[in-house]
Amino acid sequence: MNNNKGNLPPRSRGTYNRLPSAAPGKPVKKRRSKAARVLRLFLAVLLIAVVAVMIYGGSLLWKFFHGSFGVDQPVASGQLASQKPLTLLLLGTDNRPKHKSNLTDVIMVVSMNPDTQKATVVSLPRDTYVQLSGYKKTKINEFYARFKGKEKTSGILAKDEMKTMMGKYLDIKVDYTAVLDFQGFRDIVDELGGVSVNISENMCYTDSVDGTDINLKQGPAKLDGDDALDYVRYRKSNCSPQTKASNDFERNERQSEVLNALIGKMQSLGGVLKIGSVMDSIDENLTTDIENDQIKSFIKTYWKIPKENVEFKPVTGTWRSPYVYINEEELDAAKKALQTTLGTSN
């Protein structure tokens, strides 16, 4: 009987590419391919990222939903963010440990509509000259400080005065105010490990009174909280040799640059893992008149608002020291945009 089926050559022994035999009593070690190791590493990183996002979402919601930021009082019937359009005034004050101040270097007004899922953000230069009936003619950034200084005698909170004044200036109703001081800004930058920017010009300025010591060199740089604050605040030089001065519009460009860098940091895995401490920094340096239940409603309503539905309307003007005289056409366009979002435009 022919055992050589199909006239194939007989199998040769020992020609297979087998794993080496292990010594008696020892397990055989299998080699993992490079691709397998890379896949395992990728899956591990992905798992960490998923867990981090879960931690982020949980900690963020816990802080908001347990009243870390808001006012502990009920919202009037029918006034929740999910039920009607609302407007928020955002103020950033020039307040630091060595320089107590309520001047507002950042002035932004945000209108939001739950039905259209749209928002409009209007920003105004800090040196904007305001000529408004019933108010002193002055820079827009001085009003909050003035109102703050009169709280005890007037019995009216500065935040409420600002809502009334800004509502009259922009022809809208302002519902809420949130105030963040610059110490909070510095803490956020430090918690995220600094920000990378490209400094366009040398910047040098010192002030022994408030401890300011700006000394930034042109070129790419990674800035900590102190230097990042100096970078966005720099206006003029008193050094020798002097460095180029900066106006409000250039400051706004630098603020946008740093903001973009911070957004990138927050979206990174490291930023997600640090969200708890970042939120704590904000908590310690933020005051607002938004009710806790309203904050919950804001989050539920606008948590997933598309980026393309947020319209930014920066208002510029002409600088004639010491004021910025606003471009009236831009201001009118900003008013109309806010009113359109609120559904109150004619």
Descriptive key words:
346 residues; globular; disordered N terminus
In the predicted model, the low-confidence regions spanning at least 5 consecutive residues are 1-6, 11-19, 53-57
Give the end-to-end Cα distance, rounded to a whole number of Å: 103 Å
How many E-type strands? 14
- Globally, the shape reads globular
Helix-strand pattern: HEEEEEHHHEHEEEEHHHHEHEEEH
Multimer state? single chain
Biggest β-sheet: strands ordered side by side in the sheet:
11-6-1-2-3-12
Rg, alpha carbons:
29 Å
The portion of residues assigned to helices is 25-40%
Mean residue pLDDT: 80
Which structural class fits the helix and strand makeup? alpha+beta
Instruction: Please tally the helical runs, counting DSSP H or I stretches of 4 or more residues.
Output: 11
Largest sheet: 6 strands, mixed
Beta content:
15-25%
Task: Report on the architecture of this protein.
The protein is of the alpha+beta class and 346 residues long. Helices cover 39% and strands 21% of the residues. It has a 6-stranded mixed β-sheet. A hairpin with a 4-residue loop joins strand 2 (104-113) and strand 3 (118-124). Helix 2 runs antiparallel to helix 4.
Topology:
Elements: H1 34-65, E1 86-93, E2 104-113, E3 118-124, E4 129-130, E5 138-139, H2 143-149, H3 151-154, H4 158-170, E6 176-181, H5 182-191, E7 195-199, E8 203-207, E9 212-216, E10 219-223, H6 225-233, H7 248-267, H8 269-273, H9 275-284, E11 286-288, H10 292-302, E12 310-314, E13 317-320, E14 323-326, H11 328-342
Parallel strand pairs: 1-6, 3-12
Antiparallel strand pairs: 1-2, 2-3, 4-5, 6-11, 7-10, 8-9, 13-14
Helix pairs in contact: 2-4, 5-6, 5-9, 6-7
